[in-house]
Amino acid sequence: MTTTASGPSAPATTAPLLSAAELRVTFPGRRGAPAARAVDGVDLDIGAGEIVALVGESGCGKSTLARALLGLVEPTAGAVRFGGRPLAYGSRALKAYRKRVQLVLQDPSGSLNPRHTVYDAVAEGLRVHGYAGDERAAVAAALSRAGLRPPERFFLRYPHELSGGQRQRVVIAGALVLEPELIVADEPVASLDASVRGEILALLLSLRAELGLSALVVTHDLGLAWNIADRVAVMYLGRIVETGPVEEVLTAPRHPYTQALLSVLPESGAPPVVLTGEPPDPARIPGGCRFHARCQVLASGEAERAGVAHRCRTADPPVLTGGSAPQVACHWAAARAES
Questions:
Q1: Which of 3-17, 262-276, 324-338 has the lowest average pLDDT?
Q2: Does residue 10 carry a pLDDT above 80?
Q3: Which is deepest, 4, 32, 55, 248, by most CB within 10 Å?
Q4: Residue 322 CA from chain centroid, whole number
Q5: pLDDT digits (tens, 9 = 90+) for 41-70
Q6: Band of pLDDT at residue 111, cut at 50, 70 and 90
Q7: What would you measure as the largest C-alpha separation in the chain, in angstroms?
Q8: Fold category of 18-338 in CATH
Q9: Given this model, what pLDDT does residue 336 score?
């Protein structure tokens, strides 16, 4: 048994707002090279009003998974469902979907047109979707919700006249103006000063409290996940390797990869785990556990002592299921749970 849980999970009372099932995204290789398996079998659920953090190193497939969930990339296999219905990829269906699910990018300077005023930047979504109401009132309400008050003071300002935190609030207002049910925030505070990061995270939490907004926060920063998420999904080389409530995963991580990511946080108190080498090429994913070539537990002999070293090198743990139950795709963690 390679997928474990700390105990029986409570039965789900409602269907997830957004879910992915057996999702795969591959990109063809050049000149006959093998295809890159950027997302290699992912199940992920996001409930109404829930904040899920998707964490992992650069290149692990986080952003590709987010783009697939947004409908920006059509999956090679598997399905995305929103509100219980499969995502359709026709232009009209995607336009309607993107009104309900909005993207917030990490670099507000790159996502805001320097020639557009704040008013035009926020109103753009309304115009694309043919909004028939009071545009000025909608823009003002979105800016106010994003913490830019009084909103009229920002209408005619340009991005270069704003601070980094204010620009990120404009980006968030541009997403909020369409009154979405879920936002996908890709490294939403990565480009901000430490003093501003907390303000933006507090804003996202307040939006969840006030609007019932759901969010998928894509980040490499486990500290950010701790501060904002209800649940965390740790991704490595195209697959989720550990998931569960954020307090449980980040205080008692079971996968060696999660342990390594946590060990470099200053507040962890543990000696940092230095992983050998770089993540493998997604076009050449190794056999067995995809982490085994870098795994500190296998390298130290602990997996051998637990009797699972051969399985680590030869048997691929199964895809973790969606839902909120704590799970880990690790032969060694499973052996420890059973002993």
A1: 3-17
A2: no
A3: 55
A4: 14
A5: 999 999 999 999 999 998 999 999 999 999
A6: confident
A7: 68
A8: Rossmann fold (3.40.50)
A9: 94
Does this model's pTM top 0.85?
yes
Task: Please give the Cα distance from 55 to 70 (Å, whole number).
Answer: 17
Cα gap 45→21, rounded to integer Å: 9
- The separation between CA 265 and the C-alpha centre of its own chain, rounded to angstroms, equals 19
pLDDT, tens digit, for every residue of 155-176? 999 999 999 999 999 999 999 9
Spatial separation of the C-alpha atoms in residues 165 and 146, rounded to whole Å: 11
**Angle, vertex CA 215, rays to CA 267 and CA 156, nearest 5:** 100
User: Tokens 């300002």 correspond to what residue?
Assistant: 157
- Residue 337: Cβ within 10 Å count: 14
Of residues 98 and 5, the one with the higher pLDDT is 98
Output the six-digit token pair for 271: 């000696």
pLDDT at 11: 39
Which H, E and C letters describe the chain, residue by residue? Answer: CCECCCCCCCCCCCCCCEEEEEEEEEECCHHHCCCEEEEEEEEEEECCCCEEEEECCCCCCHHHHHHHHHCCCCCCEEEEEECCEECCCCHHHHHHHHHHEEEECCCHHHHCCCCCCHHHHHHHHHHHCCCCCCHHHHHHHHHHHCCCCCHHHHCCCCHHHCCHHHHHHHHHHHHHCCCCCEEEEECCCCCCCHHHHHHHHHHHHHHHHHHCCEEEEEECCHHHHHHHCCEEEEEECCEEEEEEEHHHHHHCCCCHHHHHHHHCCHHHCCCCCCCCCCCCCCCCCCCCCCCHHHCHHHHHCHHHHCCCHHHHHHCCCCCCCCCCCCEEECHHHHHHHHC
Average pLDDT of span 17-32: 94
CA 136/CA 140 separation, integer angstroms: 6
Predicted local confidence at residue 322, as pLDDT: 87
Cβ pair 204, 197 in contact under 8 A: no
